[in-house]
Structures are given as C-alpha cells and as structure tokens.
C-alpha cells in the first residue's frame, strides 16, 4: 500500500470500466443518454468518496484567496463560492462531453480515468510537496522515481494499444484515431500538473485530486471532439 500511487492508473481503469458497464446496462434498458450520464458521474464520485472533488474545491478556493491567504484557504474545511463554482463547471463540462460522446462513452470512461490518475504520478514525481516543512508526503516519502513508478502504466498503455490493434483494421483513420487518443491524454496528464504547480508553487494531496479531476474532464472533452467530430 505504501507505493499504491504507482497503481493509481490501473485503479482508474477499473473505475472507468465499471462506468462503462453501468452505461451499457442502462442503455440496454433504453435509458436516455442524460440519465445514463448523470448516473455514471455519480458512480465515479461514490466510489472515490468525492475525495478528488474535495481537492478540486479546496485548490480553487486557495487560488481565489490569493498568494497571501492561499495556504490558509486550502486548509480551511469550509467551502468557498469559487470552490462551489469550480465543481459546478466541472460537472457541466463532464455532462456535456459524455452526452456528445454517446455511443463512444464506454470507450472514453476508462481512458479518461486512466489519464487522470497518470497525472497524479507525474505530479508526485516531478514537483515538491507544498507542506514539507510541516509534514512529509506519504507518496513522496515512498517514491522510487518516476521512471520506476510509471512502469505499470506503461505496461497498461502497451497492452491497450495491442488490444486496440487486434480488434481493428489498421488503416489511416484508425491509426490517427489511436495516435490522437494517446497523445491528447498523455500531454494533458503532464501539462495540467505543471500548470497547477506553477500557480501554487508546489503540490499536495488536494492538488493531486484537483489535477486528476481536471485532467479527467479535459480528456472527456478531447475524446468527444476526436471520436465525435461532428
């Protein structure tokens, strides 16, 4: 468990596949897309206990409070107006993306959940812990280097590509589709922790969660554009 962060993307795949199963089950019983979308989002929040959403809200409140009161706002258990608005915006964006995905939603859920948690791997390995003077980061303390911790994720990516190629006829369209899905997810999982770190000057448990939610949402939006361009 002390090195559980390296398996976060695998856990994301499990959650994503569960969302896909629920989506397909609901569609089998002719539930409309909007209803299936809301339930799949609720399933995600329920399984994670809303932990990452809480991180998003705390970080949004911290950024809104300004540099002088940022740490105090992040640690404050009360929810501010900007935190609530950030949560509402994320929900709206996820709902819009999943509805647009429609038929492709079961394919997008595992991908978005995987890349969202891969962003945590990059955040932990690449940036300093914000509160290191007060306490040590559990994940950072047991970190063996990003090159080692990312290996399970690389295995998953390779297996996923192999599985995709096995199920599809490799032509120009499917090749571009595969490249677009992988590159968009990989780039966002690197850039979003980078931007969060630049704003906060460090990372902590809340920022790991915020990065996950933002990366996950970004990938749902990107996939809705890539897989359903019209």
Task: Write up this protein.
The mean pLDDT is 89. This protein has 11 helices and no strands. It has 230 residues and is mostly helical. The protein is globular. The chain is 77% helix and 0% strand.
Give the percentage of residues in beta strands: under 5%
- Low-confidence stretches are none
- Tell me, rounded to a whole number, the average pLDDT: 89
Rg, nearest Å: 18 Å
N-C termini distance: 44 Å
Cα shape: globular
Number of helices: 11
Q: What structural category arises from helix and sheet content?
A: mainly alpha
Percent range of helical residues: over 70%
SSE string, helices as H and strands as E: HHHHHHHHHHH
Summarize the structure in short:
The chain is an all-alpha fold. The chain contains eleven helices and no strands. Helix 3 packs across helix 5 (81-101), helix 6 crosses helix 10 and helix 10 packs antiparallel against helix 11 (205-227).
What are the salient characteristics of this protein?
230 residues, mainly alpha, globular
Question: How would you summarize the topology of this molecule?
Answer:
Layout: H1 8-28, H2 33-48, H3 51-65, H4 70-75, H5 81-101, H6 105-126, H7 138-141, H8 146-149, H9 151-167, H10 172-200, H11 205-227
Helix pairs in contact: 1-2, 1-6, 2-5, 3-5, 3-11, 5-11, 6-10, 6-11, 10-11
